[in-house]
Design a protein that fits this description.
229 residues; mainly alpha; flat; single chain
């Protein structure tokens, strides 16, 4: 009975190839999203009003637009408007990274605001520049506060990578759909349920890996900045 519910080696090969694409999209989009989160999170607290306003416009716009609409806009609408061509990978990374950056900016802003004001006042008394204050005092103490919600945000982005299958990028979700249509399995009767069960397992393993990595860094930061949390 068990063999009737096992996918063929070819199917697992295709799922693995799709998983690799999913991981690439996740890595690149989270790298972009993290950079945008830090930049706009800090910009939201800038002393210049125009900087705060521009950062707020980006955050509110990117949070208010559906991720799938942003993805379609990047892939179908932006290239004709600018006369350029974007690959599905680039469009997917841009859409997910911009979406993550907006939510991450609020996480960064909240983490920075959680640092006691006395720390900032001490850096001013030491005549530290704004950049030195941020890099050496504020951000290191904000990291323990930022990491837990940031980890949750990355899990959401990982799950959101399935959207790139809608623009023909051969990620895990796209490969599952192709296998379902082509029925590359040992038993046709097990095609649909077993394909999606395997997809659930693959995504769950990826999510648990991200959780484990963030758990490790959370423990490290708590040990390094125990009093900051």
């Amino acid at each position: 009975m068990l063999e009737n519910f096992i996918l063929s080696p070819q199917a697992y090969t295709r799922l693995w190839e799709g998983t690799q694409v999913t991981v690439l999209v996740f890595v690149f989009s989270t790298a972009l999203g993290t950079a945008l989160s830090l930049f706009f999170g800090v910009a939201r607290l800038a002393p210049q009003r125009w900087v705060r306003t521009l950062a707020s416009v980006y955050v509110e716009f990117a949070r208010g637009v559906s991720a799938i609409i942003l993805l379609f806009w990047m892939f179908f609408a932006l290239p004709p408007l600018l006369g350029i061509s974007l690959t599905p990978m680039v469009a997917g990374v841009l859409a997910l990274g911009i979406n993550m950056g907006a939510y991450g900016a609020e996480v960064v802003r909240g983490g920075i605001q959680a640092v006691p004001e006395g720390q900032t006042e001490a850096t001013i008394a030491l005549n530290m520049t704004d950049r030195q204050r941020l890099a050496h005092v504020v951000l290191p103490q904000a990291i323990p506060v930022i990491l837990p919600p940031f980890g949750n945000l990355m899990i959401e982005i990982l799950k959101g990578t399935a959207l790139v299958s809608l623009i023909t990028l051969s990620d895990l979700a796209f490969e599952v759909q192709k296998l379902r249509v082509n029925r590359v399995v040992i038993a046709d009767s097990a095609t649909t349920p077993m394909l999606y069960i395997n997809a659930l397992i693959f995504y769950c393993i990826l999510a648990q890996t991200v959780t484990a990595v963030f758990g490790y860094f959370e423990r490290r930061t708590v040990r390094s900045f125990g009093g900051a949390r």
